[in-house]
Design brief:
It is a multi-pass membrane protein. With 392 residues, the chain is an alpha+beta fold. Helices cover 67% and strands 7% of the residues. The strands form three sheets. A four-stranded antiparallel β-sheet has the order 1-2-3-8. The chain has a two-stranded antiparallel sheet with strand order 4-5. It has a two-stranded antiparallel ribbon with strand order 6-7. The protein is globular and about 80 Å long.
Length: 392
């Protein structure tokens, strides 16, 4: 009898656990019903308008050229190839922008805390200026007021007959694989592994004996000696081609198109202003007693900042820094206004106009950006856990 009463009482709505499970089940059912309604409504509207659905269009020939492609591409390639080209162009601009913005943001953030009045005020002016101008306007400024205003190829700025800066972009020597390329890559990997093992051994030795080891110089030597031996044994890993002016444009080598440079610089400078404030707040969050303790041990200001303050400040810096990396990656879609061939411009723009597969194209585009953003978040969260304080 008591067990039956207990069972009936366990299924009562007065039990918080029962209510929690009930609300969760109702929420899942509501989400599934809403998703089914949206899918059904979309399919019905597409059928009424005679719009076919499916992803077969990805296998059709694109029929248009792309100004910048990191992999081989011709007009006869498929729309799936266009998707890959746009994705790689987006990742290229995002990765380079993240690196530049991080380095510049850290420098400006530390400069804002400088005891030098001029340096501190210049850093403040930088932050307050660039973070308050919309990124789209900055992209347009760099593109129209700077890069497209440069002289044409015939009047380009010549740097040692190797680099040519014009309104068509920056032409530079281009590299291609030679006979010693793969041996050089293997030697480079071996050098990195040797450096990792050396660092671990040096840290273990320091913990056991307290004797320091010049890890930087030893690592630099390994990084130079091992790949150099590969070059001496197997030959140069790369062969270089210098751009030549033929007719009205340059032929050969590599070229950084104006759209790419305008996008990368604008997003880097814009995001660096926010990163600078994140770095400044992170450094300020570290107790001043840490600085006093470092000085009492005889550490100078530079080593104190590098070895004591910034490692502790990173625990505060990393979470908001992740948001800035995500913002920079998503803001790369603004490049569509200047014609940079990134994911939105190529796939959600040109491919959508040619095929009319709006649902599929937009679904793929959103899924790709979602995947990139989640990947960045997972990587930064993993690093944040690595540097987190572990309570004893």
């Amino acid at each position: 009898m008591q067990n039956q009463i207990g069972a009936r009482k366990g299924l009562s709505l007065s039990d918080p656990r029962v209510r929690a499970w009930l609300f969760q089940i109702l929420t899942v059912v509501a989400v599934i019903a809403l998703g089914w309604y949206l899918i059904h409504n979309t399919q019905t509207n597409m059928q009424h308008r005679g719009i076919t659905s499916g992803f077969d269009f990805l296998e059709r020939s694109a029929g248009f050229g792309i100004a910048q492609h990191l992999i081989d591409y011709t007009e006869a390639d498929s729309y799936a190839r266009v998707l890959l080209v746009g994705l790689l162009n987006t990742l290229l601009a995002s990765v380079i922008g993240i690196v530049i913005a991080t380095l510049l943001g850290f420098v400006v953030g530390v400069a804002r805390l400088s005891s030098n009045w001029v340096i501190s005020k210049l850093a403040t002016i930088y932050v307050e200026t660039f973070r308050n101008i919309p990124p789209l306007l900055q992209i347009l400024f760099w593109y129209f007021a700077v890069f497209t205003a440069l002289p044409g190829p015939r009047g380009s700025i010549n740097i040692e007959d190797l680099f040519f800066i014009s309104s068509r972009g920056v032409n530079m020597p281009g590299a291609s694989m030679a006979a010693g390329f793969w041996p050089f890559i293997v030697a480079l990997v071996l050098a990195v592994l040797a450096i990792v093992l050396m660092v671990r051994r040096a840290n273990k030795r320091f913990d056991e004996t307290g004797q320091p080891f010049h890890k930087f110089w030893a690592g630099l030597a390994l990084l130079l000696v091992i790949p150099t031996c590969s070059v001496l044994l197997f030959g140069n890993p790369l062969q270089w081609e210098v751009p030549q002016l033929k007719g009205f444009n340059f032929v050969g080598g590599w070229v950084l198109i104006p759209e790419f440079m305008a996008l990368t610089l604008a997003l880097s400078i814009y995001t660096a202003a926010f990163i600078a404030e994140i770095v400044r707040s992170g450094i300020k969050s570290v107790s001043h007693g840490q600085t006093e303790a470092a000085r009492s041990l005889g550490l100078r200001e530079g080593p104190t900042l590098r070895k004591v303050i910034i490692p502790q400040a990173l625990r505060v810096i990393i979470p908001p820094l992740t948001s800035q990396y995500l913002n920079l990656t998503k803001n790369s879609s603004l490049a569509a206004v200047i014609g940079y061939p990134e994911l939105v411009s190529l796939f959600a723009g040109t491919v959508l106009n040619q095929t009319g597969q709006s649902v599929e194209v937009m679904g793929i585009t959103m899924a790709v950006y979602l995947t990139i953003s989640i990947s960045i978040s997972l990587l930064m969260n993993w690093y944040n856990k690595r540097i987190a304080l572990i309570e004893r």
